[in-house]
Amino acid sequence: MKIVFYGSGNMANAIFTGIVNSKSIEPENIFLTNKSNLEKLEGYHDTLGVSYSYDDEELLKDADYVFLSTKPYDFLKLAERIKPYITKDNKFISIMAGLPISYIRENLQVKNPIARIMPNTNAHVGHSVTGISFSTNFGPNSKQEVLTLIEAFGTALEVKEDHLHQVTAITGSGPAFLYHVFEQYVNAGTKLGIEQSQVEESIKELIIGTGKMIERSDLKMDQLRKNITSKGGTTQAGLNALSNHDIEAVFLDCLNAAVKRSVELAEAEED
Ligand SMILES: NC(=O)C1=CN([C@@H]2O[C@H](COP(=O)(O)OP(=O)(O)OC[C@H]3O[C@@H](n4cnc5c(N)ncnc54)[C@H](OP(=O)(O)O)[C@@H]3O)[C@@H](O)[C@H]2O)C=CC1
Ligand SMILES: O=C(O)[C@@H]1CCC=N1
Fold it and tell me: Which ligand does the CA of 262 lie closest to?
């Protein structure tokens, strides 16, 4: 299988690194390209053993899956670049937030199968939650191949294309929202008088350990929380203080804003 990445930035890097680490494809069969940053491509070649090129005809010839992984606003230039060289065998996988399959198809001027995925940067560590939608002409075998590719860097969740807006908010942008919360926790912790580096290190371990508990325990999160909360104890006191704030409403605002932006991005492209 030959895979090409048009765009080798942060998100693509997380995906192809995950695929290389999974050993599901020989690294030399993964081809990278970008706009002009040759040094970056050479670096990935040296560290991961992947191939790279700026020769679009060579890149697209025999390519089974072509990742469209530029920023959404760079897609039209990318489409102009690759249109003359697309072959009937190329199946596209777009990671670009907000751009509908119909819009991608229209601008590539092809009928080739197109999938849209919404991964997140946890792909770096094999834990992306990736929403996916397929065009109706994606065959069952190819669908399975794509799902297997995605599972190389995490888990896949097939959804209706319209629901990719919600997936974008909850898990695509999700790591950034959680990092923001963790940053606030560190900031608050440093105000308690312990040395900053000690707070940062201990909260990092706290987050990793809590994630592993969620992963490995059979208990649900509410039970894990209750197991820490002694009647009349410190946890109860802290949780009481937290319940004075409507944290759910705060996150609902955050997620609604992200969904709204995703819809706006899609509508802007349809105009
Ligand atoms: N970051 C994230 O957490 C997530 C991002 N996404 C989506 O992933 C996409 C990429 O984001 P991200 O990786 O953060 O972006 P980056 O800015 O890190 O990377 C963009 C890449 O696109 C390349 N590029 C630009 N124009 C062209 C072109 N004409 N031909 C080929 N390559 C081109 C750039 O090349 P060069 O370096 O040479 O300029 C660069 O390699 C976005 O559409 C975003 O919506 C989806 C889910 C999560
Ligand atoms: O911020 C963005 O638009 C992209 C989509 C999800 C994560 N990053």
Answer: 2
Nearest Cα neighbor of 175 from 99, 242, 124 is 124
Find out whether the beta carbon of 173 lies less than 6 Å from any atom of ligand 1.
Answer: no
- Can you list the positions of beta strands (E) in 114-256? 114-118, 128-134, 154-158
Which H helix or E strand runs over 33?
strand 30-33
Question: What's the pTM?
Answer: 0.91
Ligand nearest to the CA of 258: 2
Residue with CA closest to ligand 1 atom 2: 11
Range of the domain at 256: 174-261
CA 171 centroid distance within chain: 8
Provide ipTM, 2 decimals.
0.97
Pocket of ligand 2 (CB under 6 A): 97, 168, 172-173
Nearest CA to ligand 2 atom 5: 97
Are 50 and 129 members of one domain? Answer: yes
Residue 223 lies in a domain: yes
* pLDDT reported for residue 270: 63
Nearest CA among 18, 4, 180 for reference residue 90: 4
